[in-house]
Amino acid sequence: MATDASGYSPGLRVLRQDDWDTWYNTLLRGFGGVPEAAEERELWRALTECDRSLGIWDGDECVGTAGAFAFRLTVPGGASVPAAGVTMVSVAATHRRRGLLTRMMRRQLDDVRAWGEPLAVLTASEPAIYGRFGYGNATLSLTAEIDTTRVGLSVPDGTDDVRVRYAVPTDVLDVCEALYARLVPARPGMLARRPGWERLGVLDPESERAGASPLQCVLAERDGATVGYARFRVKPEWELSGSNGTVAVEDVVALDPTADAALWRFLFGIDLTSKVTVRGRPVDDAWQYLVSDQRRCHPRLRDALYVRPVEVGAALAARTYQAPVDVVFEVADAFCPWNAGRWRLSGDTKGASCERTADAADVALSVRELGAAYLGGVSLAALAAAGRVREIRPGALAEASLGFGSVVPPWLPHGF
Q: Model-level pTM?
């Protein structure tokens, strides 16, 4: 491909550090053009991995962006598997419907394969986009709006032994990050954060507060040890009848049930508030089983993490299976044809292998459905009921569905 006087190749290329501002401004414009606070911009500058990021250039103008963070993702069985965190994807409105997104996705997945990462993951601003590239929705997140004037909590014995105290969020960042890291192996979908990512949890630009307070933090302590933390904002509101404030919960992490209950009891009881809002929580969040009235919590679910097996054999062999499974999958993958064909998966709670085979297929599905079921939060049987998975050998679907399940529902704790 011809290059200009600067040595650049026109079109698609790896991001250079010197081009980051132009590249990032293109991304911001693609998401509405609202400038970010300086602290937020500088954090994303520091986290961007330029050698894993792509841009499309039309002359001197950047018209497409895409990046991929180097993550490690917890999978069923507790293993931490390399995964490319697809991020910062945009195409300029002036260059839509010209195949630019497909070009970036094609190059990116080829790169991920070359890096030896068996999975690619993302959160979708528009869920309809990424299915054609093989990404399946693998986790859900819980959102709720709790009327704390009419919803009470019944906490477990021992909760009163936990002390809750205020702390400055940035002052206790290392303590909170250490608690988070202890929980990562226990739940599929959680990300092992590299240094620098802990700052995301305390990013607090005034433009993001929507009239609420600066970020606040409390620690849960027992016998001198920190066993949990919560981050939140309070939005005061007053009506003729009195106070009607909201506690907007940003993050709750606890090592055990009593620490968790103590934190939620604190959040429910903050003076001059009548509502607690939560977002992005795991679907089995424990407070749901402590409340007196779930209806008045108004729980809702939404899609969260999308998973794409980049190397089917390596991905399926990287996790364990909660029941023995020995199934041949016929996998369709038009976008990454090296995955297409038959794969024999044999595994149990101790480990697994997944190799190409000429044996007859037991179950047929696309790589998108394989990604959706990969973390154990979406049942292969449910996908079959929707016509997305086809059973060929009687009994194989039940075997695979049981094996793929996860005792703990997968959860993505934050976006990227």
A: 0.94
